[in-house]
Amino acid sequence: MPTTRFAPSPTGFLHIGHALSALYTREQAGPGGRMLLRLEDIDQTRCRPEYAAAIEEDLAWLGLDWPRPVRVQSRHFADYAAVLAGLRARGLVYPCFCTRSTTQAEAAGAVAAPHGLGPVYAGTCRHLSASEQADRIAAGIPHALRLDVAKAQAETGPLTWRDLDRGTIAAAPERLGDVVLARKDCPTSYHLSVTWDDALQGVELVTRGEDLIEATHVHRLLQALLGLPVPVWRHHPLLLDAHGKRFAKRDKAPTLRAMREAGKTPAEVRALAGF
Ligand code: GLU
């Protein structure tokens, strides 16, 4: 029975879509397996400790349990920075000085936070010479760090990954372009920290919503670059509202606590999530 993980970002209260994801993840671990809880709070401008506390409270109310201590990503920035430094030393990462207002891709990435799964970056800064990079860094121009995906693929060769529902898939990380591995305001990114932590925590089956399927291509590439063990994946369908739209925090989807306050029982909420 595998180790799985539920890895929410504490940017708001959990809603019914999160309940589905957490219950699914627990189910996939099976009776003899473990479901870990990980708090993905690298975006310190959007994450709040009260939401982190609420996540644990709401999941326990739903009847879920997980091993302690919970891994809290913001406590491990130094680890991610060290991993990134290794990739940088191998010439696989380049500084990107583009601003949100000048690149459409960055603007879209900001909307899609925390994953940054926006349109593909045009690669503008990939073409800067070493001295141009050095001058801009010396001038204090803020920069993100991007993975040079073509260079990384040249190093790893073709890769595949296995989705338990979709079968063996050829990794196509170029579909997301040169993803950000460290943001201007944060020493890591979703892609880097999630890949590192899944390996570190011995996660054997990665479960998450099918909205993140594209990210898996990138994670597979990072695993190969970093010599990490390769899990299997399952991407579950998202819960849709009455209008066929996915539940999201920004749409003020009904939170688990609002449902609890309205008198719903854990069993009723589980049933609403399909469990
Ligand atoms: N932290 C991500 C989120 O809240 C989930 C990441 C994952 O499961 O890979 O959407």
TrEMBL record:
Keywords: Aminoacyl-tRNA synthetase, ATP-binding, Ligase, Metal-binding, Nucleotide-binding, Protein biosynthesis, Zinc. GO terms for molecular function: ATP binding; glutamate-tRNA ligase activity. Residues 3-262 form the Glutamyl/glutaminyl-tRNA synthetase class Ib catalytic domain. It comes from the Bacteria. Gene3D superfamilies: HUPs. Belongs to the class-I aminoacyl-tRNA synthetase family. PANTHER family: GLUTAMATE--TRNA LIGASE, GLUTAMYL-Q TRNA(ASP) SYNTHETASE. This is tRNA glutamyl-Q(34) synthetase GluQRS. The lineage of its organism: Bacteria, Pseudomonadati, Pseudomonadota, Alphaproteobacteria, Rhodospirillales.
